[in-house]
Design a protein that fits this description.
By secondary structure, the protein is α/β, with parallel strands linked by helices. Helices cover 38% and strands 19% of the residues.
Length: 280
C-alpha cells in the first residue's frame, strides 16, 4: 500500500514510518527541510519537501496515495488538513488514520473507546475536529495514544535525573498515567491502517498505568524526588499543561488487542526508565 504520512520526522511519526516500511508499505512523507527529507529516505521512505498547511500539496498527495496517516496533529494544522484529506478521499475506499490523544477522556480509571469525552483546556480543540473526521464518509480510524514513551524521549523524559539535581513530581505524584511505547504505537497505527474501519476508534494503551511517583523514582537515578502542590506545578509548567499532567488516567487497551490483534512487546515505562533508553 502507498501511504501518505505526515510527521515522519517527529517522535511518533518516525516510529510509524519505521513500522510501515517494516511491513513493506511504500511511504511518501511530507517534511519541511532537506535534512528531514534525507532522514525519511534513510528510513526507507520517499520525501516531499513542503508543509502540511499547503492544501494543494496535501490534496495531491492524498489523491496519489492509497491511504493517509496523520501524526503531525496540531491545533493550527488539523482543521484544514483533515477537511482537505476527507474531501480528497470521499468516494474511495482509501483509509485515513488520524492521531488523537488520551487526555481527551479526562480523569478516568477505566478509559475505553466508549468513555465520555472530558478534555482539559490543553486539548479541548481536538473534540470538534475528531467529530468531523468520524462523521465523514471516509474509512477513518482515530488512534488515541496514552502517554508515549521510549527511545529516551516523550513526556517521561522530564523525570530523568542525573543523580544530583532534584526531580520534581507533577503535584504529589499519586495520579496514574496510562502509557504506550512509541514503537508499539507505530505497530498499532499500521494495524489500524490495514484494518481500514469505517469510523474506527482505538485507545493505544498497553494496560500499564504507573503512578507519576513510580515513574519519577525510576527515572531519578539517585536524584532526590520532590513533590509539589498542584498550584506549584501550574506555576512551573503552565496551567494548561500541568492540568493535563495532573489527570488520573487508567486504560487496559483491550479493544486494540481483541479487535486489531495488537500485541505490545516493548518494556514498560518504569523498566525503560530504570535501565533502558533513558539511562544517560
Amino acid at each position: 500500500m502507498h501511504v501518505f504520512l505526515t510527521g515522519a520526522s517527529g517522535y511518533i511519526g518516525s516510529s510509524v514510518l519505521r513500522a510501515l516500511v517494516a511491513h513493506e508499505h511504500e511511504v511518501t512523507a511530507i517534511v519541511r527541510s532537506d535534512q528531514k527529507a534525507q532522514a525519511v529516505r534513510d528510513a526507507g521512505g520517499r520525501a516531499v519537501v513542503g508543509d502540511v498547511t499547503d492544501t494543494d500539496v496535501v490534496r495531491r498527495l492524498a489523491h496519489e496515495a492509497d491511504a493517509v496517516v496523520h501524526t503531525a496533529s496540531a491545533e493550527a494544522v488539523d482543521p484544514d488538513f483533515t477537511a482537505t484529506v476527507t474531501t480528497a478521499l470521499t468516494g474511495t475506499l482509501k483509509p485515513f488514520v488520524h492521531t488523537g490523544g488520551i487526555f481527551t477522556f479526562g480523569d478516568s480509571t477505566d478509559i475505553s473507546e466508549q468513555s465520555p469525552v472530558s478534555p482539559p483546556a490543553l486539548t479541548a480543540w481536538r473534540a470538534p475536529i475528531e467529530a468531523r473526521v468520524r462523521a465523514s464518509d471516509v474509512r477513518t480510524t482515530i488512534v488515541a495514544p496514552g502517554i508515549v514513551y521510549g527511545r529516551g524521549a516523550g513526556i517521561p523524559a522530564m523525570f530523568v535525573g542525573d543523580g544530583e539535581h532534584e526531580v520534581r513530581l507533577v503535584g504529589d505524584g499519586s495520579q496514574r498515567w496510562t502509557t504506550v511505547h512509541v514503537d508499539d504505537l507505530g505497530e498499532l497505527d499500521v494495524l489500524a491502517l490495514e484494518r481500514a474501519e469505517q469510523d474506527g476508534y482505538v485507545v493505544a494503551a498497553t494496560g500499564d498505568n504507573p503512578t507519576v511517583r513510580a515513574i519519577a523514582e525510576a527515572g531519578a537515578h539517585g536524584s532526590p524526588v520532590v513533590a509539589e502542590s498542584a498550584d506549584d506545578s501550574r506555576q512551573r509548567l503552565g496551567t494548561a499543561y500541568a492540568d493535563a499532567l495532573l489527570l488520573h488516567q487508567e486504560a487496559s487497551g483491550a479493544h486494540a488487542r481483541a479487535a486489531f490483534g495488537w500485541r505490545p512487546t516493548r518494556p514498560s515505562l518504569v523498566e525503560d526508565l530504570t535501565d533502558g533508553s533513558y539511562v544517560r
